Amino acid sequence: MGPVKHDRRQEPRFPLPGRFRSIAPSGLIGKLLDLSLNGALLECEDDPTVSMGEHVEMLLELEDSRTFAAKARIAHVELRRIGIEFHEIETPAFEQLSELVLSLKRAPTLAKLSTPPD
Q: Which of 73, 82, 94, 104 has the most CB atoms in a 10 Å sphere around its CB?
């Protein structure tokens, strides 16, 4: 048996189709894999040029045409996947994000059904 990983997330994450692109530093683009009130898991199209602890500004574009701008900290980098923790989101965007996450908590199967297979 391998080492045990402890999940330190404070909020559940939900699989959700979408895209992202970085505003600063520029150049990161890819798929949104999952989302929570506190952060997201992203898959970059190319090898990421960011490091753990670095601060970034992201634009998350959900497939239902909602877009969120957020400042975040890179929580981890593993191959082409990066985990981000939000630390600054404009109030209207945070309210939309809260509504979305609340609706996914109520009906988590809808999020799974809307996620295209890899």
A: 82
> Collapsing DSSP states into helix, strand and coil, what is residue 65?
coil
42, 25, 29, 64 alpha-carbon torsion, rounded to 10°:
70
CATH of the domain at 80: 2.40.10.220
| Block mean pLDDT (10 aa), the chain, length 118 | 43 82 91 90 93 93 81 94 90 82 68 50
pTM of the model: 0.75
Range of the domain at 50: 14-108
The count of structural domains within the chain is 1
User: Does a structural domain hold residue 116?
Assistant: no
- Give the span between the Cα atoms of 39 and 104, in whole angstroms: 15
